[in-house]
Structures
1.
Amino acid sequence: MHYGTDLAATEIIDYPAAPEQVRQQFSSNIAYVYDGSFEGLLCCVYESYYQKELPSAIFSYDQAQETLFPAKEIATNRTSAQKVLESIGRKISREALKLVRACYFSEKKDREIMILEFLRLGYKIGSAVTNMLSHDTVRAVTKTALTVQRESHYHVEFLRFSEYDGVMVAIIEPKNFVLPMMYAHFCDRFPSEQFLIYDKSHKHAFIYQNGEKSLIPLEHLELPKLSAKEEKYHELWKRFYDTIAIEGRINHKLRMNNMPKRYWTHMTEFQ
Amino acid sequence: MPPPDGEQIDTYREEQEMDVLEKLTILSDAAKYDVACTSSGVDRGGAPGSIGNAYASGICHSFSADGRCISLLKVLLSNSCVYDCSYCVNRKSNDVGRATFEPHELADLMIQFYKRNYIEGLFLSSAVVRNPDYTCEQMIEVLSLIRNTYRFRGYIHVKAIPGADEKLLTALGLLADRMSINLELPSNESLKLLAPDKSRESILEPMRKITTGIHENRTDLVKYRHTPKFVPAGQSTQMIVGASPETDYHIINLSAALYKKYELKRVFYSAYMPVLAGRNLPALETKPQLLREHRLYQADWLLRFYKFEAAELLDEKKPNFNLLIDPKCNWALNHYDNFPVEVNKAPYETLLRVPGLGVLSVQKIVKARRMGVLDFIDLKKMGVVLKRAQYFITCKGKTILGIPNNPESVLRGLLSERSWELAQAPMDQISLFDHSKSTREDLVKCITGQI
């Protein structure tokens, strides 16, 4: 059989380009180093696009240097970041931007390079890129984004506040940095409350006070003893939780499927 | 409140002195057999100076030891009932602790739970205290405290009290998001036998009123933008399965009619839990028909999201679901000449009818096939589960190698070894309740986790 270089074959190679092929065209032996912020990452995209180079790795300053390639420092610049941000919405789609944001908050090791490859593909294909569900890069981005969105939603469900002197405090221990994705939910829900959500694994706290929002790094959070009144509400909730189960239908496996055990640590009903 | 007379005084005093913890224990215990705990159907953002919001998709906040979702604070306002329904734990003649919440107690408890992110809102029901109108008034008081004093914008599901004045029901509906009336049992005969104080009419009549209420309110809304909405998340109902002899065919037809005629948002099924001994009731050692309940929910999903008609799923000759396989598989095997279907060409509606393909998978397929021809590897990459679907689809005109092409062998492939042996035996020998013989997947899902 003859597999000549007919037109059909070249078309297939040209579209949709697999990451390896892109790499062959643009790949350079350079690693990008950026400040770890979302804007910084967008600047990496900017640099890669205008220099027509595909870095072999992208690191943030605080990550250990694991590459032998020469590192190129990418300065964070609001204007370029803004340009890239707008171009994603305009040239690809808002859905793509949502995926990229969620991916950025994941703890996946090579998330930066994954996002870059996805965006390059997106600029080429346009809004349909999010439909290419069997494409390796698109699949990786969609899957990572889904994991993060799911974890964020789990925290919206299972996070528990306790009152300390008029301030509602919750502690979470997420795998991914989901706090920036979920606080808006609570601000909308409790506009007149004062609350604090502390992410123990990423050492960050979100504080909402008199309508002011702030997300700050926080090394350690020391909480006072619960008040008697608060203890009472904990007791009431635990009692409700235990009473509402129907003995004849006990199904621990189902409960664990619906509510993975790692969330139980900070839930009032299991304390 | 007029002072209660005679021997009632003692129980009244006891209830007054009871603390909130005791009341909560009694009144949540009495409410737990109500299945519905969804907080879905209405989108409402927060607002300055108020508390709460609601999401159309609903949010679960915990799962109890039976694996069911806890979304709402599910309690009765009171369990001191004047009725004597034989299947009900709260019947007058039953010897259980009685309690009644003060409206302010319950309102405060609910708001405090909500602030701590324990719950999405309230599911309020009640036994009939004194008379239906009085009970309804008490419930209105609780809801108006929550809505007007605490300015709560979250979710409220309320049980309509059959027999209460129409005006009171309307007032209740304007404060709630969803209203429900339990059908209790699937037929009038069973109702007569087990709930002599209720009749089909006394339940369907208020149900019809809620439907009209929703319609009238809809036309009102056109005229005045600020008309308060009457049960914006619609109404639902619940029936007990396994306490009376109705077939699955009867039940599914009833549900289909309720969805169509009364525009219900949900029908819930509850496997009968033998908590009481009664002359007309199944014996106390009867196990709840959890797997049957699971099959009914699956069929219910087929009616609502997969565009199936009740008559397609069952008929009078085969009035019950095959407990070994799900209703969609069952349908597909009985209509095997419609299969296999080509993934790249079949219309959306046809793909929806393929066993093992859910709404999400079908949406993914339709999206992805615009970008290129799909084969089985693509499907797997996209996360489409082929376990059941592989028997009913082709990609580029081909099935997976070695896939059988007759319903007999497909059934064999779908079932585990043991279930297959059982399927060979005459049906009447299979115990409906022997869980070890069904597929693992069904067992895990079996208990209304998807509600």
2.
Amino acid sequence: MLSKKQARTFFLGGTVVTFLIFIGLTIFSFSKEQDQSNYENITEEVVRGKKIWEANNCMGCHTILGEGAYYAPELTKVIDRRGKGYIKAVLTTPVPWAPNGRKMVAYGFSDEEAEDLIAFFDWIDDIDLNGFDTVVSPIAKEKMND
Amino acid sequence: MKYKSQKVAYWFFALSMLLLVLQLVYGFIMGFARIGMDGLHDFIPFNTARAVHTNLLVVWLLSGFMGAAYYIIPEEAQRELVNVKLAYVQLISLALVGVAAIVGYHFNWWEGRKFLEIPRQLDFLVVANVLLFLGLILATLFKGKRRTTTALVLSMGLFFAALLYIPGMLPFDSQVTDSFFRWWVVHLWVEGVWELIMGGILSFLLIKLTGVDREVIEKWLYVIVGLTFLSGVLGTGHHYYYIGVNKIWLIVGGIFSALEPLAFLAMALFAVNMYRKGEKKHPNKLALFWTLGAAIVSFVGAGLLGFAHTLPQTNLYTHGTLVTAMHGHLAFWGAYAMIVLAIISYSLPNMTGRKLYLSARGRAAFWLSNIGMIGMTVAFGVAGVVQVYLERKFKMEFMEVQNEISIHFVVLLICASVLTFGIALYIVDFIKHGRPTDEALELKT
């Protein structure tokens, strides 16, 4: 029968081994050759866009890369689906945008801020998401089939 | 209660109860917004309510864990807490940081990263607070007469929970990297080190309630936390399937997260078996209900419902839908909310000297809150599955789908009312126990 000491060895050993593998895989994932995010395309606009995204907790309603709050649409591939003009209108309008009755906060962003956010979405759109991109955007799927 | 300083725990539990009530209020605000009743939108938009709801959850659970540690560690280490005044300082600062964060969320002061919305400036205060807490607990433990496995596992869980807060504070330019390391905090907390805390509390309660030999309980505790880490650490991969990192995570995450239910199954079997083996019939049946309930419901909520959408082939469609909310609610309820309610139910009569554990109110609180939460889980699940099919398979517009599923949120609100009624009864019981008193020291526990 298993002794307490063996049980402790199982716990400590298992933890150390799996954690080391985890760190190894993390380093592997972020090596240059494995990059799927087009890291070199992150411009100053994209970084500013990400900051605006965070400062206003957009993830508190929307999802991006499938992560967020499920109250408002997924924004991965949103430029494919809606086009830049539509997005800019939503971001800059002084009255709450409310398609089908569900209200968005009227942020009334400046032109420049809206451009930064669009640059951020643009960068997100090109990430290789292991197939999830085709699920969230029918248009992306059609494009791939062409 | 054996040591005077254990009374500190009472105030941490009281803070927990207060924050739990607020969490329910913000949950209702979101539920009503989802059925179109969003009259509060101008003051509390959905993203504010959401951040408040999840952060209150984290803070009330942490406050509960800290209370549990202040109650358990002196008893395990067989000495008074090293410094009671500092423990109260820690309590008050925890409450102040929590309140500042929650108020800030109403004024667009946050860092919009799911679950880690606390602004950077407050992050440092959180760290200082947790360090003070850990200092008090570890000093008590190491100056104590004995160091039990239960106390060590509990302290390890608390220590690593603090350590793992750091990756969440690193700044990244890339959303992908940001998200990757955000899960180092969130996943490794809830599917890793928090389970050590849960295991520690569970083991303490089982030793007290069943009378089974400590050596036996603690041996299995090692096996369970061993299984937790073996599956949970690499199981983090299930968050990395579709966020823009290498496909290797589909394999690693898929295999190891499929093993995650085993840890919860082991925990449930362990608790039930210890209860069966136990010869001691502790009169506090209510604490036993919550303890066994936590072990069983966490297996269903965290283990089974987690598994339901953890395979890459399924997750491709369910990622970013209400299916996640289904799993999230029952998992947090079973694993963490119920274990905190269990330790409160156990320790409250010991600290106050009032044995109210035979009341019908306490049992009603247990059953109503559980039935309410299971109903909510079903409502989220149905809404989520319908959303997956309509939006992801039939490519319907997001808001068209939302209108189709809004009826499930009416069901959700009804079930949430049942849960709230149960919690209200629990809190009435809490208040009726009165304040902790030194006279309770002589009580046999």
3.
Amino acid sequence: MVEILSVLADGIAQTVQITLASFVVAAVLGLPLAVMRMADSWLIRLPAVLAVEILRAVPPIVWLFLVYFSLGSSDHVQLSTFQAAVIGLGLIYAAHLSEAYRAGLDAVPTGQWEAARALALPRYQSYRRVILPQTLMVVVPPMATFAIALLKDSAIASVIGATDITFQAVQLTQQDLNGLGNFAVAGLLYIALGLPFAALARGADRVLSRRLAGA
Amino acid sequence: MQGRSMSTTSNALLSLDGVCVAYRQHEVVHDVSLDVAAGEVVALIGPSGAGKSSLLRAINFLEPPSKGRILLEGREVGGTRRSLDALRRDVGMVFQSFNLFPHLTALENVMLAPVHTLGVPTEQARDRAMKQLAHVGLADHADVKPSKCSGGQQQRIAIARALAMEPKVMLFDEPTSSLDPELGAEVLATMRTLAGEGMTMVVVTHEMHFAEDVADRVVFMADGRVVEVNSAGKLMRDPKHPRTQRFLDAVRNR
Amino acid sequence: MSVWSEWQDYLPAYLDGLSVTLKLTGVSLLVGLPLGVALSLALTAPAKAIRWPAVLVVEVGRGAPALVVLYFVYYGLPQLGLTWTSFVCATIALGFTTAAYTADIFRAGVNSIPVGHREAAQALGLSHWKELRLIVLPQAIRVVIPPLVGFCILLYQGTSLAYAVSVPELLSRAYSQASITYQFTTTLVLAGLVYAFVSLAAVALLRARWPRRSAARTDVAVPAGEPVPTAR
């Protein structure tokens, strides 16, 4: 077990880096997607809706292949496996997070929009000062859940050759043929890495329900 | 057409001219015309579903009128975002459910619009907000979050928030309906003070005493139409229309 | 050669791949759903000796990447003298994942029934079995089906992982086509389109049959020029 762990540990950094970098990309791109999807003009709404639906309708592994072999191997662009994984997973999870953001925006009562409008607050200020601060706490638990899902999906990056935990486990197994042990440890490693996110989600949930109950 | 000619009174601060409100295809307010003079307090009364709140919300375009015109100081409102913003700066609104911003303190709630809508410098806005909080008797609650205040206090903060924009007209949408009578009373007292200071007010209310004592004129609405308009004393004590009589009898015998 | 004629050449192989993909999805559900029901019952069992193993299985099944579970089965089971085809390995791995995820869905379905309904059933003297059959299940099914269909779509997409253990499913066909022609863009885009077509059709079906709880919106008119908020 310890020997296995010492080999797989070489992949932990890569797994964590892919997960965090993709999550940052997703969190940044997801918000404008969510806001666009709530726009009145279908000209703004349509591209966002299309992007979200298509990103979610194609398996992550196909996206990673497309980004790595197609986009990232042209004459103009050469992408590393890490970059390809971050772009692919970042885009997919931007679509997922836009749903979380939208649910958060929806959770703000109608009256808050009306009050902001009645005070003639400009649209940007309404979002920034009134709506988004109230959205934040609501959005944290689903965001943490998506972070765990992203952590698990990051294993797919090993298929295009990113040297993460799963990649190390496959390499090791080809040498020692101990698939049972190696992949059991790999699985536990992923579960362990997900625990902080799970704790975050539970903590935010508690704060949230206390707020709603106690007010 | 009779409505049209009535609405062109020159000294009206706020005029509604043939206003209709529709949700989808369903019209809930039919052709209402009404003039409100500067300093006047108008109460809108009537059974629930009469379209009172819809009419009030149409005045500042929370529900844009499907037909008709809104005029403020003789200028027609609507069409552009700019004209809407100008209207909303001049018309304060108080909601049934307060709609205070829960993540901001009382003071921050009151300061928000002066700073971000009017561009008043922060320090000046703070003074202005403190003045308004004192005005509604809540200067000592400046740094308290709305969730720590009683319903009556929250509604008074909401009134201060609207007043901080220094509006020309204040709209009240059933401001005491979600409060128990005791807390409602402190809100009504605040509104009485405002009326005494000469604020122009349009109030949708179920409080018949308030309508009778404070309003200059009372508008009785039913089924989306204005049934009867008269000075408060006359309409409340001597209603002409049988529909008004029935409503007032029912309310008083409750 | 135009993209269209290229795609026409690829399509027969892709459709073969799609049929493997759909078969894998179906068989995994066949294995996983009964296990999921059993697990959900075990999760709510009063005896710790039954509950804890079930919790463990669900946590591992949901916490570990499906790809790692797949490798575990594919590379690990031969150590125990069990040598199966890659299709069977993929079925075991995806069936296990299905069981873990759907156990949670089923449990949530049963938990969604208000305690009062069960109490009322008991007060009316219904037997435990009748209470389940007449009161609990009809309500639970309504709650369970939308997330279940959602999971099926995820599983359908998840079968693409079986590429990694060389099951000849859709993605494998696309990749082997690409390694012959070196046309990665056209081959992979077509694969993506085939995946997307089935997923989107399923999503459309789901939304048509079980529209999101958007009924609250229909009676609130939202003026033009403003974002559309819902009432809570």
